[in-house]
Specification:
about 280 residues, alpha/beta, about 15% strand
Length: about 280
């Protein structure tokens, strides 16, 4: 029998990614630890944290990072300051300096290749119009690139290329984990894939629905291509109702009010799932 290799796959989803903190806690409490971590966008932030410190104390630190995001001022600049930044930067509503400072405070100057758990995250290369996987180099630079939400945060330049949010090219990278040899995959997702799509009825819904089609199509295809013998678990979010893809209010990037509720709901739902669902032992 092939050796069991457990991967945590952390998808993107803005502030809904707080739920991944609860899922990570449930996994560790159930005695499940990663041999590999791959992440996209906000999942890259959470993934880098668990790859750096795969312990319950590390989860406590990650929860503190999320609360730090809420109080960091990252998205809380006044309209005047936002207008000045847009006039100066022209490509984003907010600078990424507060996020960089927060990540540096938590992750320091670590390099990907030196993390205790193998970690990779994905971003979209502008120049090549392709996904790029960060497998070496500074963790913070890679995570910033992976989480550079278009129009919200600026593209991140690394070397000769500029990068945008990894969710543009690979929002739930389960296929990457399998390609890297994972035999058991735990998918930490934010809940949007749980709800059927409906045709947009308002102009501002068109872009979000189009993005959902692209991200779900790839995820569904990669799930269908999972080879025999690979075990995949998609952890629940615990939300009473999955967020509607066309409802931008559910994805507001400055709405921190329900942070703790998302973490708690996802933890309780994931723990219940793990306790009732058999997994292979090492």
């Amino acid at each position: 029998m092939a050796q069991r290799r457990t991967a945590f796959v952390l998808g993107g989803g803005g502030l809904l990614g707080a739920g991944e903190v609860g899922m990570l806690r449930a996994l560790l409490e159930n005695g499940i630890f990663p041999d590999l971590v791959v992440g996209t966008s906000v999942g890259a932030i959470n993934g880098a944290a668990i790859a750096t410190d795969p312990t319950l104390a590390g989860i406590d630190d990650l929860a503190a990072v999320w609360h730090g995001l809420a109080g960091s001022g990252l998205y809380r600049a006044s309209p005047v300051r936002r207008a000045r930044h847009v006039a100066r930067a022209r490509t984003s509503v907010h600078p990424n300096d507060p996020l960089r400072d927060l990540l540096l405070g938590h992750l320091g100057d670590r390099r990907i290749e030196d993390l205790p758990v193998p970690f990779q995250c994905v971003a979209a290369s502008i120049e090549r119009a392709a996904e790029h996987w960060f497998t070496t180099g500074p963790v913070v630079d890679a995570v910033l690139a992976s989480s550079a939400v278009p129009g919200v945060l600026p593209p991140v330049r690394i070397g000769a290329e500029h990068y945008l949010d990894g969710g543009l090219v690979n929002s739930v990278p389960v296929g990457r984990a399998v390609a890297l040899g994972a035999t058991v995959v735990f998918v930490l997702q934010v809940g949007r894939i749980d709800r059927p799509l409906k045709a947009p009825t308002k102009p501002w819904e068109v872009a979000s629905v189009a993005f959902e089609i692209a991200r779900r199509h790839r995820f569904a295809r990669e799930l269908a291509e999972i080879p025999e013998g690979v075990e995949v678990h998609i952890l629940p979010t615990g939300a009473d109702e999955p967020p509607r893809a066309a409802d931008l209010s559910s994805l507001r990037y400055r709405d921190f009010a329900s942070l703790e509720r998302r973490i708690t709901q996802a933890h309780d739902a994931a723990l219940a799932y793990l306790q009732r669902t058999p997994q292979r032992t090492r």
